């Protein structure tokens, strides 16, 4: 064994063994370091390859899951829809409605999900902006001309359930195990009933008229009456879905249960303080 360590300084080795041994030891160290460096580069390349494969597998899984979700929805295309796509929607017309609070339209075979998304609107503290809720798609979002800077002073915000202390009204059977839906985002689905042509939302009812089909039942909701912004009254499904991971009080376009005020409304059928039910019907 050479009386030299790769970590020692040449001067100390020279005192013990001479310059020839110093040069030889230095060459051996250089070769050893080169071999180690080569192996390390190989290991790093292998790790990068495994990471690339893992990322590709994850991307494929996400694409597969999204494709499975999108199979049930109307295809989004910029070009005209071909006949091969049109045959999935037999007949003409069809009743359109938004199912507020759910990401699904229903189990009926004659229901098509046009798209699913999340409710949005103007901020509850603002005087201007829009006065209605929108069902905003969360997949296949596209842009035309745009600039990434605040310019128009007209903004679109997300939504939240504001049902604190009223958790017995909107159930949690579809809420993936959460205790209450308050402060979660409000999902929505735009639906088409192929064999029907008319839609109506009836407040203060839980059943549809004779010969009408009941799409879903729920509660009337809107913005709080003390807020600056106004919204429409919508019927929110009484068994809403919940998107896990959206529990955060960011406010925006808010959903409050609507209560009756008798005196201005006819007392008797309407009782002060009672939450207004609703039903969405098609025919």
Automatic annotation (TrEMBL):
Keyword Nucleotide-binding among record annotations:
no
Q: Example GO molecular function term?
A: carbohydrate binding
| UniProt feature, compositional bias: Basic and acidic residues | 61-81
Coiled-coil stretches noted in the UniProt entry, renumbered to this chain? none
For this UniProt record, the keywords arranged alphabetically read as follows: Lectin, Membrane, Transmembrane, Transmembrane helix
Stretches the record annotates as Disordered? 61-85
Q: For this UniProt entry, what's an example GO CC term?
A: extracellular space
Q: Specify whether Transit peptide is a keyword of the entry.
A: no
> Could you list the residue ranges that cross the membrane?
20-38
The family database entries (InterPro entries) matched by this protein are listed as: Ca-dependent_lectin
Instruction: State the source organism's domain of life.
Output: Eukaryota
Q: Record's PANTHER family? A: PULMONARY SURFACTANT-ASSOCIATED PROTEIN A, SHORT-CHAIN COLLAGEN C4-LIKE
**Protein name, entry field:** Short-chain collagen C4-like
């Amino acid at each position: 064994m050479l009386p030299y360590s790769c970590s020692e300084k040449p001067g100390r080795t020279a005192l013990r063994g001479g310059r020839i041994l110093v040069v030889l030891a230095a060459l051996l160290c250089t070769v050893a370091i080169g071999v180690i460096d080569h192996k390390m580069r190989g290991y790093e390349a292998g790790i990068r390859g495994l990471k690339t494969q893992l990322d590709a597998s994850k991307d494929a899984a996400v694409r597969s899951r999204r494709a499975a979700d999108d199979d049930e929805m109307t295809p989004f295309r910029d070009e005209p829809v071909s006949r091969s796509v049109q045959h999935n929607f037999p007949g003409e017309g069809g009743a359109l409605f938004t199912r507020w609070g759910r990401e699904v339209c229903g189990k009926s075979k004659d229901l098509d999900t046009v798209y699913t998304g999340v409710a949005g609107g103007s901020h509850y503290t603002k005087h201007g902006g829009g006065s209605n809720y929108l069902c905003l798609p969360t997949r296949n979002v596209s842009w035309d001309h745009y600039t990434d800077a605040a310019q128009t002073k007209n903004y679109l915000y997300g939504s939240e359930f504001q049902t604190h202390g009223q958790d017995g009204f909107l159930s949690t059977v579809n809420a993936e195990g959460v205790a209450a839906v308050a402060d979660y985002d409000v999902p929505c689905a735009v639906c088409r009933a192929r064999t029907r042509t008319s839609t109506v939302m009836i407040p203060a009812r839980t059943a549809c008229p004779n010969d009408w089909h009941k799409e879903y039942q729920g509660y009337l909701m809107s913005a709080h009456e003390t807020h600056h912004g106004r919204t429409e009254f919508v019927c929110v499904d009484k068994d809403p879905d919940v998107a896990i991971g959206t529990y955060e009080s960011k406010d925006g376009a808010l959903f409050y249960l609507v209560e009756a005020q008798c005196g201005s409304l006819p007392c008797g059928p309407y009782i002060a303080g009672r939450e207004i039910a609703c039903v969405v019907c098609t025919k």
